[in-house]
Amino acid sequence: MVTSNKKDFRRFRIKHRVRKIVHGTPDRPRMTVFRSSKSIYVQLIDDLAHKTLLSASSAEKTMTDAKGTKTEIAKLVGKSIADKALQAGISSVVFDRNGYLYHGRVKALADAAREGGLKF
Hints:
Elements: H1 6-19, E1 30-35, E2 40-46, E3 51-57, H2 70-87, E4 94-96, H3 105-115
Parallel strand pairs: 1-4
Antiparallel strand pairs: 1-2, 2-3
């Protein structure tokens, strides 16, 4: 991958290094996070079937009315994905930070998902 941005290239390298190890199954899907400048997205993925099982984001209609900082909204997204997962019968996941540092919005989302009942 050729990018003109050093940060993007660094994240790309980290992402592929981690993805060699982390795999999702139907019993324990991979919870991956994508962080844009305005929103945060999370998906539960079954890597064996190449399917997205569940997703949640701050861009959903239910979340667009939420007020607060980006970190507070990330907490709401974490609680949302935990609720959806528990309703679907998924209690444990493998966390994939997708090359981002485990800090700030990514950490807030993960902590809120743990508080919501997901195990990882």
